[in-house]
Design brief:
Structural class: alpha+beta
CATH topology of the largest domain: Nucleotidyltransferase, domain 5
Shape: extended
Largest sheet: 8 strands, mixed
Keywords: DNA damage, SOS response
Domain UvrC family homology region profile: 201-385
Number of helices: 16
CATH superfamily of the largest domain: UvrC, RNAse H endonuclease domain
GO molecular function: excinuclease ABC activity
Number of domains: 4
CATH architecture of the largest domain: 2-Layer Sandwich
Distance between the termini: 57 Å
GO cellular component, one term: excinuclease repair complex
Pfam families: HHH_5 (PF14520), UvrC_RNaseH (PF22920), UvrC_RNaseH_dom (PF08459)
């Protein structure tokens, strides 16, 4: 069963810091900050966050507003203060206890409880008006109207439906989809849809029950009522199941059904639109456009080195044709001319060996060469191709950030950075190439080291020649299995005398 866990869905974060910030995020950091969501609708979360910053003077800066920094006059007010979107806590214009009252109100609104705040604003507005403070009363009225407008959009049922979970179900041939709506004080505060891969032995009742438990746990729901499209055996005691036919509960169920059907429709359309062939073609066109290549990069090659402190140094080249790995064309290279750990020199050797041979044999060169490295690796490839071999092939590099994660595509000389979005198909395609060349290079390096270690170990046994080594390794596959073998098993491969020598060597038993 496959759960699409919604890692990319955004949540609202209230940070754990002096004068907390409120913003939309897709990254959950366990540092004491509070997260609300995730929200499946970008429009819904953007509307809510914009509304919060419109009605409350919550800071948007990332300044470290500890008491020492504020008292030392380290900061100055920004534009947000001058347009009355922030009260200037960075310079001591607002006390933290007053600021935290805004945060308490923000949290209530996020949780769906806007009525109390609305009542408070109305009473303050009336009081100011009675005191003839019309300008201040007008500013409160603007906020009051914004809040009432927000409530009218979020409330779709009466407040009797307090803390209710709504679930809807739909399916196609291979998958099922379950939508969850959370209702609090008459407002929908969460909408979320997941996908399960169906099994032949699971009914829709089974899948819905599993999803309910999973989602209620995920969002820490303790609602005593759940609204469903059909009856199920629910394992949690004290929870009432409603299968409404009319009224506000039916309206909520219909909305959840509409959401799950739309989700399924969008998934199917996406699958139809981005089948493998179309996806690859789209990615290659994207590369061509971003790098302004003359030709569509139907033939791409990528290089990587692998060594440990300069030992068993190797390199690998992987080939992609029409966006797919062409594994029969992959090549491994033992580094022959470089002593010690020198990635640039190793890259120079391998690139020269590969492309000088291709030119001699009149083999078509790739449409694009990618180095698994930054500017230095690109420059080495440029020197070989442009200066030594007098040929030009577009060269790109995959650069990493300070956390050693690929985040930039480099191209041109001098290289220019082309930002990559982690969820973009282009990023995923380049990551696939990078992972493939890493895998191929590291596997080759491990194999080489293993063979060298094996050969070295058997070389220490006097009286054992090359043919015997080959026989032993063909049968036992590894030194460890040979070490653990009984003497009669070794005798079957190399005879009594050699078996005795080998067994005594590994066991340290000189009495045999």
């Amino acid at each position: 069963m496959l759960l699409k866990d919604g890692k990319t869905y955004p949540s609202i974060c209230i940070t754990n810091e002096p004068f907390p910030r409120v913003f939309k995020t897709r990254n959950i950091i366990k540092n004491g900050s509070r997260y609300f969501g995730p929200y499946s609708s970008n429009y819904a979360i953007n509307t809510l966050v914009d509304f919060i910053h419109e009605i409350f003077p919550i800071r948007t800066c990332k300044l470290n507003l500890i008491k020492q920094n504020i008292e030392s006059k380290k900061f100055s007010v920004c534009l947000q203060y001058h347009i009355h979107k922030c009260n200037g806590p960075c310079v001591g214009f607002e006390k933290e206890e007053d600021y935290l009252k805004h945060i308490e109100s923000v949290e209530k609104i996020i949780k769906g409880d806007a009525n109390e705040l609305s009542k408070m604003l109305f009473e303050q507005m009336k009081l100011l008006s009675d005191e003839f403070k019309f300008e201040e009363a007008h500013l409160l009225k603007i906020k009051y109207d914004l809040l009432e407008n927000y409530k009218s959009k979020s409330v779709i049922s009466n407040t009797i439906l307090d803390e209710t979970d709504v679930f809807a179900y739909d399916e196609d041939e291979n998958s099922c989809y379950i939508n969850m709506l959370r209702v609090s004080k008459g407002s929908i505060i969460l909408g979320y849809t997941i996908e399960y891969k169906k099994r032949t032995d699971e009914t829709k009742e089974d899948l819905l029950a599993i999803a309910i438990v999973e989602l209620r746990s995920k969002f820490n729901s303790t609602s005593k009522e759940i609204i469903l499209p059909f009856d199920i055996e629910f394992p949690i005691k004290g929870v009432t199941i409603s299968i409404p036919q009319k009224g506000d509960r039916k309206k909520l169920l219909d909305l959840s059904i509409q959401n799950v059907k739309q989700y399924k429709f969008d998934k199917l359309k996406q699958t139809e639109r981005l089948n493998p062939e179309q996806r690859n073609s789209s990615v290659l066109k994207s590369i061509q456009e971003k790098l302004q290549l003359k030709n569509l990069p139907l033939h791409i090659e990528c290089f990587d080195n692998s060594n440990i402190s300069g030992t068993s140094a190797v390199a690998a080249c992987v080939v992609f044709r029409k966006g797919k790995p062409a594994k029969k064309e992959y090549r491994k290279y033992n580094i022959k001319t470089v002593i010690g750990p020198d990635d640039y020199a190793s890259m120079k050797e391998v690139v020269f060996r590969r492309y000088s041979r291709m030119l001699e044999e009149s083999t078509p060169l790739p449409d694009l060469i990618i180095t698994d490295g930054g500017i230095g690796q690109m420059e080495v490839v440029r020197q070989v191709l442009y200066d030594q071999l007098k040929t030009e092939v577009p060269i790109a590099g995959l650069a990493k950030n300070n956390k050693h994660k690929t985040n930039e595509l480099l191209f041109g000389f001098p290289p220019k950075e082309i930002g990559l979005k982690p969820n973009d198909q282009l990023f995923k395609f380049l990551a696939q190439i990078q992972e493939e060349v890493h895998r191929f290079a590291i596997t080759f390096h491990r194999d080489k080291r293993s063979k060298q270690q094996t050969a070295s170990e058997l070389d220490n046994i006097k009286g054992i020649g090359e043919k015997t080594k080959i026989l032993l390794m063909n049968h036992f596959k590894s030194i460890k299995r040979l070490q653990n073998a009984e003497i009669n098993e070794i005798e079957k491969i190399v005879g009594n005398n050699r078996a005795s020598i080998i067994y005594k060597y590994f066991k340290g038993d000189l009495s045999l």
